[in-house]
Specification:
The complex is a heterodimer. By secondary structure, chain A is mainly α. Helices cover 73% and strands 1% of the residues of chain A. In chain A, strand 1 and strand 2 form a beta hairpin. Chain B is built from eleven helices and 13 strands.
Chain lengths: 267, 307
Amino acid sequence: MSSYAAEIPQVVKHSALRVYGTEAKYEILKTVRQPAYVIPTLAFPLLFYVMFGIAFGGRQAVGGVSLATYLLATYSTFGVMGASLFGFGAGVAMERGYGWLQVKRASPMPPLAYLLAKTAMSLVFSAIIISLLFILGTQFGGVHLSLSAFLRLTGVMIAGSIPFCALGLAIGCYAAPNAAPAVVNILFLPMSFCSGLWLPLQLLPKFLQRLAPFLPSTHLGQLALQQVGFGRPGSAAVHVAALVAFTVAFLLLALRGYSRDDVKVNA
Amino acid sequence: MQKNESTVASLVGVTKKYDAITALNDVSLNVRAGELLALLGPNGAGKTTSVRLLLGLSKPGSGSVKVFGRDPRDASARGRVGAMLQVAKVPETLKVREHINLFRSYYSMPLSLESTLEAAGLEGMENRMFGALSGGQKQRVLFALAICGNPDLLFLDEPTVGLDIGTRHLIWQQIRRLLQQGRTVVLTTHYLEEVDALANRVVVLNHGVIVAEGTSTEIKARTAQRRIQCTTILRSGEIESIAQVRSVAEHEGRMEICTSQVEPVLRELFLRDPNISGLEVSSSTLEEAFLEIVESGRQEAAQEVTV
């Protein structure tokens, strides 16, 4: 074995981009091995979809499409939100709160690599969830969705996960590590319900319908519904603009929480 | 490789406050190329704050921080630095090899995986999941992450706290090896023993100020206080009259005598009270040594004021 003292370290010439790929690869590997993340993230949207969309919903129709199709879009939104919120919220809170993020920050890792790796990880899970929902819907729920509609839905979901990654990041920058999953749940579950992701919006009480436009999940849900042929007044541009605004707000919130960190660290 | 005595990292007039607490108060500190600088001090003295500033993890309230002549947050400065920090929890679902390879990918001239494993005493453990390791093994992985980038400057924040002797000695041995190669190491620790074993130069911090600075021998000479405990009929005033005694205190009927010269004091005690009993002689704890340094620092400051 070559002696450490004598070794002349080899210069590793690699593109600056490679570190982003490596970071993402290990982030995904690390997360796939965590049942506490994988199981709820995959199981909840699938389970709810089977219960409400396939078992009960059957062939009922809502606003021109079958309930199974409607809920395919909204549970995709629900699943993507969960993957992003838990991936970022719980992940960042743990790594920040237990000092691991500090070790990474002290290293020459580009800070953006950390965020992009977590985003990539959320996207992988989002893609898996959407694909599984699609299979369930078309095989057992009588959903007829063209490939192009499915691809458009997937595209919208992938882009639409960004505001929820940002919200998760903001939670991760504020919440204590052991509180973060609870905080995420407290936001995630009511928000999903109130924005019509579990049951169509028009079946919800009036005051919730009025609250809905103030939730980012409503806008992503509506965009998703538009892709499966559920036309509803309100143009896509408004929803996109709302989601961009939420993203900016969440990122600013995250930045504020993050810079607060320097203040309360023990001497 | 580098000229000796040249400064690789420095704090100049740095003050850092956390809310109402002043963690560092106008501290200036030079880290010289090729030395092992130990930052010593009780909890809350400002050791970790100094390291965090030098790593660019924290911004100074005032004053300046430089590493290799640059802002410590510069990628080019970070590329030459490695750090072992106190971490409560490391992601457990990556293998040792994966953790090391990820950190190696951050550096442009990393050590090979094999030499990193060897240097950290982790051979044969590369495929173990981090979560399955023992406490000492986990600490070795953190050490491996600190050195895998082949850094010129290494920060070790209490690297051996709570470690088994084997791992502690392994880390000491590796630190010596790095110093032989001309690397610079900044170490914070509670253990005087560790300072003795490794440090060229010691900076003692207390309440955010430097209270002593010098070689470890110099520091030790200042803190060579010993403590004698006994039960005796002698009154504290009588004991204080012994020339070498620095101070006397009475605790629950027992006398506690501080001195830097135990033998003459003992001789005198036996002479004055042949029935002296329950005798114990101990070195002062590090905490007491600090208190002594701080106290003398204050007296010096007071003298300067009067002069």
